[in-house]
Amino acid sequence: MAIMVNIYYTGKSGNARKFAEEMVASGIVQEIRAEPGNLKYEYFFPMEDTQTVLLIDGWKDQASLDIHHASPMMKQIAELREKYDLHMRVERYSFDEKGIPASDEKFIR
Fold this sequence. Notes:
Layout: E1 2-10, H1 15-25, H2 28-34, E2 38-44, E3 52-59, H3 62-69, H4 73-83, E4 87-95, H5 102-105
Antiparallel strand pairs: 1-3, 1-4, 2-3
């Protein structure tokens, strides 16, 4: 069963955005996207909260996510979170592989 994790990073003085920019510039994001089982790893910026960055982090299954969490990259990510003094709020979702139900298709353009 696939897993999607929304991580909201919040800081001060634009630190959440600086964190995301350094994650990309350092190559960590590209490494994570190349990990087996990674489905999505993208940052978004909420329009109404300039001090927060949303990371949408998707994995094929729990085993893939566990391997990622055990990787050396997690230490690098934790160090960057500390560097930018970020706080996190996490939402976790799991979903089946069936996709979008036909009853919802009429709402998609």
